[in-house]
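Q: What would this complex look like in 3D?
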Amino acid sequence: MTAYILRRILYAVPILISVNLLTFTLFFVVNTPEDMARLHLGVKRVTPEAIAKWKQSHGYDQPLFFNGEATGTKKFTRTIFFEKSVSLFLFDFGRADDGRNIGRDIRQRMGPSLAIAVPALIFGLFINITVAMTIAFFRATYIDYWGVIASVAAMSVSALFYIIGGQFLFSKLLRLVPISGFGEGANLIKFLILPVAIGLLADMGSGVRWYRTLFLEEMGKDYVRTARAKGLSEPRVLFRHVLRNAAIPILTGVVVLLPLLFLGALITESFFGIPGLGSYTIDAINSQDFGIVRSMVFLGSCLYIVGLICTDIAYVRVDPRVRLR
Amino acid sequence: MPKPVLLWTDVLIYCLLVSSVLALFSALKKEHLRLPLRQVTGCPTAMAALVVLFFYLLVGLSDSFHFRLKLDERPGQQIQYAPEVLSLLDIFVGPLRTRVETTYSAPLAIEAYTKETVEDKTGRRSRVYPRLLYGGSHLKDPNLRLSDIYGKAVKGSAFGLVVVTFLATIGVFLLSRVHKTVWRITAGRVLRGQCHAAWRTTFITAGVLIIIFFALAPLATHYHLLGTDKVGQDVLYLSLKAVRTGLVIATLTTLIMLPFAVLLGISAGYFKGRIDDLIQYLYTTLSAVPGVLLIAAAVLMLQIYMDIHADDFSSIAQRADIRLFFLCVILGSTGWIGLCRLLRGETLKITELEYVQAARALGVSQWKIITRHVLPNVTHIILISAVLDCSGLVLSEAVLSYVGVGVDPSMISWGNMINSARLEMAHEPIIWWSLLAAFMMMFGLVLSANIFADGVRDALDPHLQRG
Amino acid sequence: MTQILLSVRNLCTTFDGSKVVVRAVDDVSFDIRRGEIFCLLGESGCGKSITALSILRLLPSAGRIASGTIFFDGVDLCRLSEENMRLYRGKRIAMIFQEPMTALNPVMTIGQQIAEVRQRHFSERPVDSHRRTLALLDQVGIPDPKRRYDAYPHQMSGGMKQRVMIAMALAGEPEVLIADEPTTALDVTIQAQILDLLRAIQKARGMAVLLITHDLGVVSEVADRVAVMYAGQIVELAERQAFFQASKHPYSKKLFDSLPHRAKRGESLAVIRGGVPALSSVFIGCRFANRCDEAWEVCETATPRWLTQEGTGVRCHLYDATVSKNQVPVASTYPKKDRQEKESGAWGEGAVASPLLRVSDLAVHFPIHQGLFQSVVGHVKAVDGISFEIDVGKTLALVGESGSGKTTAGKAILRLIQPTRGLIHFQGVDIAKLHGKELRAMRKSFQIVFQDPYASLNPRMMVGEILREGLVVHRIDPGREDVRIDRLLEQVGLLADAKRRYPHEFSGGQRQRISIARALSVAPRFIVCDEPTSSLDASIQAQILNLLKQLQVQLGLSYLFITHNLSIVEYLADDVAVMYLGRIVEYGKVGEVLASPRHPYTQALLSAVPEIDPKTQREIIRLQGDIPSPISPPSGCHFHPRCPHAMPICKETYPSPTEKGTTHRVLCHLY
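A: Here is my prediction, written as structure tokens for the whole assembly.
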């Protein structure tokens, strides 16, 4: 088990390197450091000296991938790619274009992101399982039929409409909660309740439908017949036998998402003006701040790999048949 | 003669159309695909969804033949073409495109939505709701508006009913020729829903849609059925134009990702070992990058490239089209991972099966084993996932456009409509119709695509059939 | 003790499909008395499992009991509410299922699953049910119940799981135990253990048992009375003694005749033509008429009555005094498409003996990876140095229980699995050394027929395409492939129109014929038959065995016949090699090995085969425990932990071969 996890962590290193390589290539193939400097300095002050100075101050004064002037291994180490990557691997994210410390920003914005994502996940899981279980209990009846149609309809609506519609209905018409913003302490709930509820609703369609499929698949298996042959009641068969087995794919599907919760919900956060990582990312995309985008990509891939490892561990925890070697 | 304009996406759409027709015909020859397809035609909800999809497809396709109209000819001069690129759809909907108001107007209104200061003949200024330039301009008396609307709608539906009856008769006649029975018997079967295919549902859905079309057509040409937007463009026109964008994103992306997914997925599962490791490494890396960020990075890159090489693009339409095309490429290059994983797993299972071992024992070459034994046994997975992905892609277009990394802002799309409608929701009084239009059109497409995909999955997935 | 406990009367169970109604059980009546073992015998698809599920009302969602009554201790189970029915399930009527692998919940410990029954029906406190469960585990012969209580199903072998299933069924202290093919998925030695256990428990508790099986041997071992089912109906009901001495119904007789046996060597087995009719069809005459050799006109037109006498009965016009007997069977007027199966004729003793295939020291080791860098920490020695020879036109049977490595050996010989070491001399060429093109060209000389008729044919290819594949690869008869395909189909007893149909349109037996035709298509000299009949019904098995024998004579083929069924070996093979944990423990002529087995394992295997002739007296050797895992085989002789004759030396060293006569070889310290 320990060996397995160690191996997975080692395996992550090449993946992170190529993720970095990918982002670097994407950005620098067309957008050279000169272009970046020009963009930031503005049209007026563009002189070769100014560009050189900007590049030096932002650490772009070296070749991209290969330094022909250096010797030995320095041919590779004295490059933008190497230096920027190494600092990323040390979780030193550097500064944004406006001079702010990216690392500190990320730490600050993690909290609000989690405040939305964690309740949405927990309540969502609970509600989706309950609804799907109910539908599965009434399988092959009208409740099942219309339940499936309702969840297909629900998943056919863009998340944007849930947000816009929700804001309009609850904030503008009914004036129950503030339309957007973020607060502290008890105030927080007022701000959170709508985005969380909308997050739940937007995922419910696909969630319920998937869980129903899982439950029905399990219910077709032989051990369910054995359980019925023992004289157990249908709810007991469902909760004691079926749910335990169906929980394996559900749980592992959720665990892979857990670390990514830190990244926040892009759309929800920007609509509700929540100062989380999601809105941070969107702002960075809009202002073309490469430093932030690169940091978020790196963070995201790290968390994804952590998620994968957690999934494997979760498998061992919930499924007695799985052994990691 | 207008001068045809070939956009990149148009060419690909033609290719897609031709290849899917060919694929359908070859699928009909294979029994393992023909039977499930027959089962799909027997499922009423799937057929209703297919009819709706067909109408969307009609709109999208007619919007994919582009040309530039000839300008008025002057003797002795070279033939000149209008700078703007039009499509067949623009010609069909004629007045919808050209009757542009000055600014917002509500659906079916004849007056502007906000008061304006007008000066009458005597020079007196007053704040009034001015009459629209086009919407309801045929009405002398504003009070006749409602009765005119109802009259046109009823007349239109009546005409629609006649057309539907006519078409249904032809349909039943053709069916009876196919079934080689008297048409009276065929009609009875269709009415009682006793045919193998769900013809009754198909006819009813198509009929309802046609009647709605005929009822709304006179209204759309005399009024602005769904109102106008900020610059006075007809919202109905916008939402029809957006159909093509949505369809292109959904279908082209699938077309682009399929070869990757199939090739890599099957090779990983079949060859195992180092090749498998490499492919797994590739897709783990790609899926480790948060999707939106990867797309954002790629789109930003493209944008900068286009800014630098602005001269290479002769028109705005072409520019927007290139961006649309690249968006499809980018979505496709991240979208293959899911299917690739599925195919890898399935191929791993199949290569352990005895018929593959028997083929190896016969000395069949690896390439032939893949094409004859593995590929035909994963076709259903490819089909199911291709159909399932389509609806998700339409939805993601809206989100990406909202984030600012979707289609070109000048391109008409549901995402862009929603994006601008967001500000309109804060307008007093509220302007709701753009959002509603985008919502309805998108919901219609995605819902029917989802329902159709469910039908296809139920028919093709052997796993579900047993249960 | 002849009081009737369970009485099924005119039971009809139907499955409503989208177009057709399948009458899976059609007018079935029988009684089960207290304390007796009642066997329901029949081939797959005859409705015997559905009958059992109907009694417990556990039918799949498409099925329903259309009519009939099921009286249990005076109560009609069909009329009970679902809630009251649950009081019977698991409490008064318990059931064990065929597949112990899937019938247990994989994420609950076996203790929990058994205790659940006690808690449900006796409202016991957890402490009490825990104690009871331990007692039950002990009773069904599970060693170390305390530790096993917390084990998960996947940690146990198939036989152990079936014991757990029995314990679970006993937990409710039922009056009737329904056992649906409880030993079909198990090896013979384990089957013998489970049958012993069932019989012992039934005696001790005075339970009634409804045992469902397709195996005449099992019936003869345990039954008190037996009912034979065919196509949804009971065609014969008899006491065991009477049934085995003189069965009445032509179908029952045919079942006996179709079993392979030593006594039938050299002659072809009796077969039942065709297959079981579809249960969705409407029957006019006797359901067996079209497969019956003794049928005449009446059988075609009139439904036979159920003729009953003193608790026995038969459904056949032959025994109906009111039916005129025109004793000229119409069988001769039937189209003889299966004619060649009935052509008997002594199988020649084969051509001049010269080894076609010589395998020496063949081994297949699978590495076990472990640790940080997945380094190889050991090997699973699936096949560990086996040697044998097969002569032209001869059959070598490779016998062993599951996990003995026999299938791996077969595949390694064909180079479908890369052997770790060893020589495979085929016609003088070592095929273990061949590569790429050479190997591919060589492949037309040796072929394989697989066990599972459903997985061995590509469902997306027509039969014609399947057969053409090998012809195209090896450029056999270019341009005239169709003629050859027609001839192949004829050879295996299929009609020529089969080539334009897909595999799913064929029954299991027919599919196996197609597999054989595919193997024959490239005119091989040697065929590995990997349990080709183990998933087929007895009557179909006889057809396939006949076909294989006949082809051997016609074409001079050599077979490596992999099987666990010793009666097939007795009937078919010339030589036999008994495998245990990757090694051959006994090797010789069939006559020598099976008539005077030397190795204790061979002796145990032979004695575990249920004997259908109750008169035969034999010494019964019961093996303890399961076949160990090949990952860590026991030290010394692999067999010593289960061996009744184990000596101290057996733990130390692996025995070297001892020659018993010129052809008989055994690896045991006893000799």
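A: To summarize the key features: Chain B has 17 helices and five strands. The longest helix of chain B spans residues 366-403.
Q: Very helpful, thank you.
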